[in-house]
# Entry
Amino acid sequence: MLNDKKILFSGMQATGSLTLGNYLGALKNWLALNDDYECFYCVVDLHSITIRQDPSELRKRARDLLTLYIAAGLDPVKNCIYFQSHVPGHAELSWILNCFTYMGELNRMTQFKDKAQKHADNINAGLFTYPVLMASDILLYQADIVPVGVDQKQHLEITRTIAQRFNAIYGDVFTVPEGYFGKNSAKIMSLQDPSKKMSKSDENPNASIYLLDDEATIRRKFKRAVTDSVAKIAYDDAQPGVKNLLDIYCASTGKDIKDALGEFEGQGYGVLKDAVSDAVCALIIPLQERFNELKKDKEYIDSVIKENAQRAYYASEKTLRKVKKKVGFPEKIK
Ligand code: TRP
# Structure
């Protein structure tokens, strides 16, 4: 490696449009950790095909997501920003690690159970071994830290288990990574049903703010956000809609709940909704402007894609060579 910094790996799927929840819950953490680590940010397109995808749609979304990473402020020179499918090592290591993962372990994964239920007509083997591919992403780069949402905790645990199992047999091959779940990273809920997470795949478009929604849409969605009839702005589990708006407000402005409550004391929900809309627009409209500029510059994005795929490839091959030797594959003749 070029320096002594520890290594960070994370990734997102290009399925669905990114929401404010993805930004405040994940991307913001990436930005916060960015300077202290050598970072790999991957668009995990291999994972996407565990669910049936429209090819041209997937291609477009994957490129948009990579562009969004940059628009959000991740520098593609300091960081490695790339497509998983451009680096063959992910799939190769995944095969090898499949042979070090037990059916019983994968059977316990709650995400597998959820997805199998949701896509009962397509419970493919890739959906089952999804966590092994994710473990391979992480272990391939010897990552020390993996910032992800809490819904990925179980996948992080199995990654650690696989790494430890492999190391116990072959010696210290893999760094055993730590998950990073963000101390105060907000869990953003649906605007229409605040008991559910704000999700890319929500069927009701009013439930989510998409990062590429225009200003009028953002304001309209917040106006329609579900609140309650208590008519008091408090940070209380009994008022999940208002609580969610306060969380969004604080996560977007960097203020803490106490200050926000002071600001809104005695005010009505309309004032809160306007303030949340202002805060969110201030955050994401500039991001959209950068995104649209970047998108126009095809040559630049192409060069980022090309150069970073190469960097990722070199880093991945270093681990892969070691792994192949350890498990006993014959050496290549040059
Ligand atoms: N499974 C992750 C999610 O759905 C995405 C992902 C794939 C990932 N590989 C990864 C995240 C490696 C972190 C590290 O959110």
